[in-house]
Fold UPF0102 protein ACFSCY_31605.
Amino acid sequence: MAAKDVLGRRGEDLAVRYLEQRGLLILSRNWRCRHGELDVVATDARRLVVCEVKTRTGTGFGEPAEAVDRRKSARIRRVTQVWLATHQVRWCEVRFDVLAVTVQADRPAAVKHYEAAF
């Protein structure tokens, strides 16, 4: 597995733990279809929470959350529609969050949670 994949997996594991500690129930991880992938699909018992996780080792190329641009958010919305159809969810409120994880060798990992990011 490539180093970036290991880093991404670690970031997703940290993000999932963070969400679970805040009471969210994880429904899917790394859910894929032909249109793309959803990193984490969860629920807070009131709504579906679709989370994009971005992990970096620093901010030299910008904050991790900045990588979720208009094109990326549009793709996530399309894939969410496929997830809803596949799981036969007729209608529910959906919130799109971004979890920015920074993992540095000399510090504890940091998770920033941007609720309703797009």
Remarks:
- The chain has a mean pLDDT of 94.
- Strands lie at 25-33, 36-43, 48-56, 94-102, 110-114.
